[in-house]
Amino acid sequence: MRDTMVKINDRYEFPLQLDLDRDDGKYLAPDADRSIRNLYTLHSVLVHSGGVHGGHYYAFIRPTLADKWYKFDDERVTKEDTKKAFEDQYGGEEEELPQINPGFNNTPFKFTKYSNAYMLVYIRESDKEKIMCNVDESQIRLKKEQEEKEHKKKEKAEAHLYTIIKIARDEDLKEQTGKDIYFDLVDHEKVRSFRIQKQLPFSTFKEEVAKEYGIPVQFQRFWLWAKRQNHTYRPNRPLNPHEETQSVGQLREISNKAQNAELKLFLEVEICSLFLLLRRAKKIFFFSSNCTIPKKKCFVKALGKPSDILRKLTEMAGIKFEPKVMCEHIDKKLTFRASQLEDGDIVCFQKSPKADSGTQVRYPDVPSFLEYVHNRQVVHFRSLEKPKDDEFCLELSHI
């Protein structure tokens, strides 16, 4: 047989006790500690049943190193004798006698065994007490995973009774911009989620929001999100007083035609005087000057024009604005509706870059900055002991 992978099923015997000090310790590594008695006792046998192209794994384990062996085969655990767990896993050929019938050849025949030991685990006698000690709850790593599994199972069974409300705030918008590859106003997978009973009045939920964020109910204004044709989300309209008197379940059905348990809201926090302005304003835009100044909001009229707010934009950005520095090709004479600018759209503008700015600034203009964000990949490194905490992060690029 040549150029073919095969599983070797030759007979290979292994001892119940392994003495590595024999023959003057010739089986030990050169730097091994020879002051310790290197006598090992077999603890477990991992068995593979099958061929090179497939098969099944199971294990024989002695939990206390006594003569009691247990077979762990998927979800089945059975008690086995020493011969089956030990000698029967040597592999090789096994001799078997057929049933004795007159007139038939009763010569014993041999057949190859396809179940044999794959890996052996030995424990040094001097370390037995340290390894085979009692295990407390803090050392059972799977207990927390099991509790989380049971919690998710319970949530799934009670899902029809609850609505998931995802609240996005100004802080989420600031966190989103320039931080991730996700190109949208906000990533709803990262915002604060509330699991609320459908029968709970929305007014009661606002009180819970007040406790969570420290924002008085009278200063809370919630906007519904709408999904656009390009699969992005924008704040569409504020909740009216009648809608806020309804239950959470009724509000979810009104706001979302899709049959899911989520209600996406944007929480605006303003003083009372600006609430009066909102009654007249029909659009909200979030402006950024190449991510070098704090993000600010500007309320505009739906039939207004970009040229109407140029002066206000320059005051917000603190720059001397000239028409030629507009990086986005927007016709200032058209209305916002004609330009297909909707709630939450981001308008980027900047100072005209100098000739030598490319050597001083890493991303001198908006296109180069967005290309950097698009190709960026942040790699998170975590330890096994703290799988949810980042040890450090490394920023890489796809190009």
Describe the structure.
- The chain has 399 residues and is α+β, with helices and mostly antiparallel strands.
- The protein has four domains: 17-132, no CATH class; 159-280, Phosphatidylinositol 3-kinase Catalytic Subunit, Chain A, domain 1 (Ubiquitin-like (UB roll)), CATH 3.10.20.90; 282-352, Roll (Ubiquitin-like (UB roll)), CATH 3.10.20.90; 366-399, no CATH class.
- It is 23% helix and 28% strand.
- It is built from twelve helices and 18 strands.
- The chain has helices at residues 22-25, 82-85, 128-131, 141-157, 170-176, 202-213, 241-244, 248-255, 272-280, 310-317, 357-360, 366-375, and strands spanning 17-19, 39-51, 54-61, 69-73, 76-80, 93-96, 109-112, 115-124, 162-168, 192-197, 220-227, 233-238, 262-269, 283-288, 296-300, 346-348, 376-381, 392-397.
- Strands 1, 2, 3, 4, 5 and 8 form a six-stranded antiparallel beta sheet that branches. Strands 10-9-13-11-12 form a five-stranded mixed beta sheet.
- A hairpin with a 7-residue loop joins β14 and β15 (296-300).
